[in-house]
Amino acid sequence: MKKYFITVIIIFGIGNLYSQTVKYSTSWFGPNANPVPEFSDATIPQKTNIDLTADYYQGFGQYGNGDKTINGYFKIELPLLPERVSLKVWTTIFEHYNVTQELGDYRGMGNLQGKSNGDFYVQTRISVLKERESWPAIILNSTLKTASGTDFADRRYFDTPGYYFDVEFGKSLFLKSKLITEIRAVADLGFLCWETTGSRQDDAPMYGVKLIAGNEKWKFENTFSGYWGWMHTYPPYGSDYGDAPMVYTSKFIIPTYYMNYFVQYQYGIKDFPYQQFRFGISFPVEKLTPKYR
């Protein structure tokens, strides 16, 4: 019994020591592990809306070069109170990855290629203030990230949960022009937190700005966003910890009566060594919209 107990302690100690060497950041994991959170145009829909996309990520730089990832993405938003309160759920699905031997050794991966599934995100959105002529729309978001993502040993997803709170501000300017009829500015501020190892949390302020321009036939979005973790600023972890990602995203949307088609490009400016190419559709579903009488 004593030998068994000692063996368990040794195994636990080795496992804990191994986990301490893992850097829980976007620089050292796959592109869907803990990405910079997306934020909306500061509106809540009237009908249930579904997004379906196909994503391709190409890694670059010291930490990402040699990582090629293809995945699907699913998102649904249900307006519990139209334009007032909604519930949003999204996840990455059917991820296929392929990395080079050099990158696999660098990250300490178990396999160089394979399939995985992502974490689930559950978000509650509340309209705090409706947009008026003299003030912007304000929406409060509360989001929980599960630890359901697979392949931690292959550095695809964290084996820990996380959460974040953020506030969106949005204001539109309408123009008397045929080319551009509306310009909408959106800002996002928040706080992101995720568990790393040994119950230690990495905390990060979130930020983002978005400019949307277009008309009834097209829309063009440009977004700059990121978050700033604290662990890379302390010597025990090192400046290469990589928990302060910053990204630029450009999205072109073609609205139609039944659905919206869009293409998106994202470039990692800092601590996100990937560029993303996304193709998707977004459409309302009347039958899934809660009814109120």
Structure characterization notes:
The structure is a single chain. With about 290 residues, this protein is mostly beta strands. The protein has a single domain, classed as Beta Barrel (Porin), CATH 2.40.160. Helices cover about 10% and strands about 50% of the residues. It contains 3 helices and 13 strands. It has helices at about 1-20, 60-65, 100-105; strands spanning about 50-60, 65-80, 85-100, 115, 120-130, 135-145, 160-175, 180-195, 200-215, 220-225, 245-255, 260-270, 275-285. A 12-stranded antiparallel barrel has the order 1-2-3-5-6-7-8-9-10-11-12-13. The radius of gyration is 21 Å and the shape is globular. Mean pLDDT is about 90; it is low at about 5-20.
Short structural summary:
The protein has 293 residues and is mainly beta. It has a single domain (2-288), classed as Porin, CATH 2.40.160. Helix content is 10%, strand content 51%.
